[in-house]
Amino acid sequence: MSAALPMVPAPVCDQLLSAWTIRLFKHPTCTEVLLDVSCKAQTQLLTALPGIVLLRGLPNSRRWLYVFLAVVLAAGGVTLGFFPGSGETADGGTDYHSLGAFAALLSGNVLLILLGSVYRSLGFSRRLGIGLKVAGVYGLLSIPAYMAVLASETGMLIGLVERGIVDPFLIGFLVVGAALRRT
């Protein structure tokens, strides 16, 4: 019989991340941005990595793909948190915020589709597998809509379209976690 992994409550996890962030960034503006805007999402993106690494039932031949996508998701989330901004650079340099966001958004939705495709081996219902795949495809299909809104430079509805990319995999991971607790 294997020992269960200890569960760290979300408020404790948020407090640990908050304390770490406050020590790392002494500037109050950086701390406020990191804690208020991205702490919750960053926590979920970071917890996806150990969740995938420890997940039983993934196909052994493609396990590396799931872990790779989870690493890209976590790295994108961390990059997003360390480089807060609107996606514009003043000096014309590299926009790390947008690069991190794109890496996280793309890998998160692809990971959701792949998890939906192996629903049987994970012990999920067929309906949940289809739901995960549909949510991931919806997130991926929202990327061109997001790019079109960006290209229009009006900025109208950008947050709504961005939610169409982000929310499917964030909600999908919560559903996967709840389904794993039941199995």
Strand content range: under 5%
The span between the termini is 16 Å
Which descriptor suits the 3D outline?
Answer: globular
> What's the rounded overall pLDDT mean?
76
- The structure class reads mainly alpha
Q: How much helix is in the residues?
A: over 70%
**Count of alpha and pi helical runs:** 7
How can the largest sheet be summarized? none
As an assembly, this protein is single chain
Order of helices and strands: HHHHHHH
Count of strand segments: 0
Radius of gyration: 17 Å
Low-confidence stretches: 1-38
Query: What is the count of structural domains?
Result: 1
Features:
7 helices; 183 residues; mainly alpha; disordered N terminus; single chain
Report on this structure.
The chain is mostly helical. The protein has one domain (10-86, 95-182). Helix content is 77%, strand content 0%. The chain has seven helices and no strands. α1 crosses α2 and α6 packs antiparallel against α7. It is globular, with a radius of gyration of 17 Å.
